[in-house]
Amino acid sequence: METTRAGRPRLTERRRPGTTAREEILDAAGELFTTRGYASTSTRAIAEAVGIRQASLYHYFKTKDELLSALLHQTVTPTLTFLSALRHDDPSAAQCLHALAAFDGAQLLTSRWNLGALYLLPELREARLATFWTERERLRLAYLDLSRAILASTGVADDAADLPFRLVESLVNMWSQPPQSDHAKLAGHVADACLRVLGVSDDLPDLRASTHHYLGRNGPAKVGRL
Amino acid sequence: METTRAGRPRLTERRRPGTTAREEILDAAGELFTTRGYASTSTRAIAEAVGIRQASLYHYFKTKDELLSALLHQTVTPTLTFLSALRHDDPSAAQCLHALAAFDGAQLLTSRWNLGALYLLPELREARLATFWTERERLRLAYLDLSRAILASTGVADDAADLPFRLVESLVNMWSQPPQSDHAKLAGHVADACLRVLGVSDDLPDLRASTHHYLGRNGPAKVGRL
């Protein structure tokens, strides 16, 4: 058990992870949206879960939609940042897709709340979440481009091109809290599976090695969250 | 354009597909749960969408949970029935998995409402939906057993065993209404992908032929819905 840092309790005990009020609010919203449901959660309930007044919450987020949008961005932004860094190394399409899937999968599996589960909410079709959809579409198209480049050399039908993105996304259904101890291994197997559905199998040991290298340098721990 | 069967309108116009009031209610609930959200939909709104009184609805379903449970069963029951019929033919594990995935995938893609999108609802953790979870778990374990039998001969890591089920499930994210015209083709490609993630690739043409045979006999059109 950890000892507390201060001898006597702070007047305003910090209840949530995060170094800023904004992060604490996002954490509470992530918990309530994914455990009680989006429609059933009020901004007042979120403020109460953080231990602040509703008026203070509005200082950071004007609407519940804004909170949802910020949370959803957290599910794609780190991966887009990783991909952007990865591309500086000029990896092959197969190396790039394998590393991308392993990173993205690990992100989804280790998120504190299962935010990916919110993707299918009817509320998400709202135009107000358009910037999130644009970013997610950017990510999907990045997967698609890489998949198509690989399919061109394996001869597997082009219909398989969307499956790697969907395979990684399906990790949302395997999320657990606390994360499975072998989440990095599971994400790695999903990365393998992404290549297999495109018809690649012989090169997997080499691809695992290059992914290990890329993730070691730019892996989840080194990419900013929130 | 179709001509109407009767010269003058019926007093109580049937608004929804289904031959019984129960089916009409389920259709309306499926639409509202998947478009407006479960928490935001009242049983009164469902009754109104069917054109009946709320008291009449309660005659068929006592609670909103009962409605949700019935809808969710529709997403797994036809597949379990298909699998049961399939087993009488004593197919190999690979043949069985390929046909199962193609059938299950086609079901998910052609359902009138995207009911699979409800799987991740926080409300679904409720104990009242236990019978649905039991059936879905039966289906998941059937996939898992088949996958493990295949992995034993391909030498791919056992961690891939859950991926075929997840791949098919990911079709929930590709659902559209009306269904894509090539939904059977897409489901077939996902069936191929299920085998590929387990390390099978050479036998795919044969597996497609056997699946074509099994689906022709017991395919979606011949399996009862609702």
From TrEMBL, chains A, B:
The keyword Transcription regulation applies. Pfam families: TetR_N. The keyword Kinase does not apply. Residues 42-61 bind DNA. Keywords: DNA-binding, Transcription, Transcription regulation. InterPro entries: Homeodomain-like_sf, HTH-type_TetR-like_transc_reg, HTH_TetR. Residues 19-79 form the HTH tetR-type domain. This is TetR/AcrR family transcriptional regulator. It comes from Mycolicibacterium sphagni.
